[in-house]
Write a structure and sequence with these properties.
3 helices, alpha+beta, single chain
Amino acid sequence: MFDWNRSCSYDEQHKRRFHMTARSRLKKLAAELALPPGSYDLRSNKAGIAVSGEITLHHDRAYIQVGQFGMSSGHGILIRTCKSRTDYTGGANHFVSLDMLDDVTALAAAVHAITGIGRNKTLSSDRRAA
């Protein structure tokens, strides 16, 4: 498991792994949410030496950004609605733990609950059982 809470500040090698691993997990999140190819962008901004930078999945209706900006609170994934991929302010900010990157299914459920995008696997499972 990746140590999401180990600071990337002044550690270029760890920052590189942080970005690579977060990007990979966001790709898995896009697949878990069944986002069609071309309906989202995946960007990485390494920023300066003293910060983690951020990795962003920007969908037509959701903005999800990973970074170590909430280290003291334990939060590092920003989730909010948006109106397009040119909307960088969007709806209200919601934060979840960086550790959710280790459970992409749970992260997808959180994204779905906040933004409404993706499939609701719980609902689908309940319908099949009925």
